[in-house]
Amino acid sequence: MKHRMIGRVSLAAVLLAGLPWSAYAKVLKLDTPSTSMVLDAEKGKNLKFLYYGGRISDSDADNLRAAGSPVADAYPAYGLDTTREAALSAVHADGNMTLDLKVESTSARGDGDSEITTVKLRDSHYPFTVSVNYRTYPAEDVIETWTEISHQEKGIVTLDRFASGCLPVRYGDVWLSQLYGSWGNESRVDCSRLTHGMRVIKNRDGVRNSHTAHGELMLSLDGKPRENDGRVIGAALCYSGNYKLVIDTDETDYHRFFAGINEDNSEYHLKKDEVFVTPPLAFTYSNEGMSGVSRHFHRWGRNHRIAHGNELRKILLNSWEGVYFDVEETGMENMMADIASMGGELFVMDDGWFGVKHPRDNATQGLGDWIVDTRKLPHGIQGLIDAAKSKGIKFGIWIEPEMTNSKSELYEKHPEYVIKPGHRDHVYGRGGTQLVLDLSNPKVQDLVFEVVDTLMTKYPEIDYIKWDANMSVRSHGSQYLSADNQSHLYIDYH
Fold first, then answer.
1. Residue (of 47, 269, 274) closest to 150 by Cα position
2. What is the chain's mean pLDDT, rounded?
3. Neighbours of 226 (CB within 10 A)
4. On the chain, which terminus has fewer CB atoms closer than 10 Å, C or N?
5. Is 412 within 8 Å of 404 (Cβ atoms)?
């Protein structure tokens, strides 16, 4: 990985003069082994985007600015130019809706096996700053960008839009590849040519944000996407909540790509000296088609985004599709024997194992009452752990502690624990009775922690927790998170 800043004053001269080299930076060239991103960061000017693609030489980067190549704002803000889409818009404490962000300084620092370059932008009048960050990963050919927004105004500043980043792409035979779907029909690939107008990929589901669409896409620059050849840019937003991806193609020679938190009904009131940090937006580039981009992102995900990402996962059998809610001890042990006989390593008992007053026999009741139903499991969870051990496999279990049913002991005791709009009826999910617990309530946070902690403490031999974090359906994509006190335990978010 190489990072370079080019300006009229050489680095050596700046150091000899005892001045900060960042004060004179103009052209920023951010390199990974196979890619380059080039920005024009002249102090007192707008931050401009010059290039992103295959690795180029230092002289080529010099010539981009000198040749007067068409440029676009790297992080456009709303206000003085109201005709273009913006990455950021805000209302100042005095009601002014304009931003005029100019480069104040640039800096770079190492961070483990990556390097972070920061361009600090400051409004030309207001004490309002935006730090645009770029992190380069040399081993994966990935560059992440995100922003840190703050102010020192006398009052609250309202953020109306707060994208993580922007990437201009020259207009041409550019094709968009994206994923869409629904339950049992996930991750369908849709490819279409980008023409003038706007394309929006968005999510407002919150806890299941990859169910109907994905916060990732690919842009094929040489016509219809091909797997193994052609220039392709990949983008992935690293965020588990509501997102919005926008491609705006107007009368200029650019497709402008924006991605970040979905700002719909989510304006943010930023206090003085508070810092609002947007989620990272990762980019990669390959001239080996869509497969090349996939390989880059797979390495990056395993090495930096997924806990234990380079460890082999156990071959497992989950009880859900086999018996659904009809969990009972003999059946669980028979399924354990089946997976063990085929060389499997893990058995996971899914939904249906809990509830006393309201047994979890179907989707209409029992969520929130995490007590073993001994009618189904006379020897409890420990009995199943012992059975799994006798067959030479590990045992895992399903929970969904952020949910409850209106027909449950938890809801009967604490109806105030659920999310409910004021002066409105409940909004029910699966089974017509499922409700989401209010995780902003400290008492609910303690409750959810207690559910997980009790399982891990009482049954330390549980090897795997499947945590279905959604309101009404299952999504089959998974992200593994490790528990701090058990290095071999994985929580599988569905």
1. 274
2. 89
3. 15
4. N
5. no
- Distance (Å, whole) CA 374 – CA 359: 10
Q: Are residues 195 and 222 in the same domain?
A: yes
Number of domains present in the structure of the chain: 2
CA distance 191 to 328: 46
Q: Domain residues for 165?
A: 2-305
197-224 per-position pLDDT tens digit: 999 999 998 767 888 999 999 999 999 9
Residue 310 domain-assigned (yes or no): no
CA distances 88 to 156, 174, 196, Å, are 16, 25, 22
Is the domain of 71 the same as that of 212? yes
d(CA 265, CA 268): 10
Instruction: Please check whether residue 384 is in contact with residue 394, taking contact to mean a CB–CB distance below 8 angstroms.
Output: no
Q: Of 36, 38, 39, which Cα lies nearest the Cα of 56? A: 36
Per residue in 397-442, pLDDT (tens digit) is 999 999 999 999 999 999 999 999 999 999 999 999 999 999 999 9
Please identify, among 305, 326, 345, the residue that sits at the C-terminal boundary of a domain.
Answer: 305
Return all residues near 284 (Cβ < 8 A) that are at least 6 apart.
35, 140, 141, 142, 143, 233, 234, 293, 296, 297, 300
Residue 326's domain is classified under what CATH number?
3.20.20.70
Nearby residues of 445 by Cβ (< 8 Å), 6 or more positions away: 439
Beta bridge partners of 399: 467
The amino acid occupying position 86 is A
Q: Which of 249, 278, 305 is the last residue of a domain?
A: 305
User: Could you give the CA distance from residue 407 to residue 433 in angstroms, rounded to a whole number?
Assistant: 7
115: CATH? 2.70.98.60
339: phi then psi, degrees, rounded to nearest 5? -70, -35
Its pTM stands at 0.87
Please give the structure tokens belonging to residue 187: 């991750």
Clarify whether residues 113 and 262 are in a common domain.
Answer: yes
Residue 398's closest CA among 325, 303, 468? 468
**Cα separation of 2 and 30, whole Å?**
7
Burial of 206 (0-12, 13-18, 19+ CB in 10 A): middle
Q: Are residues 299 and 396 in the same domain?
A: no
Distant-in-sequence, close-in-space partners of 365: CB < 8 Å, separation ≥ 6: 355, 358, 359, 405, 407, 408, 431, 433
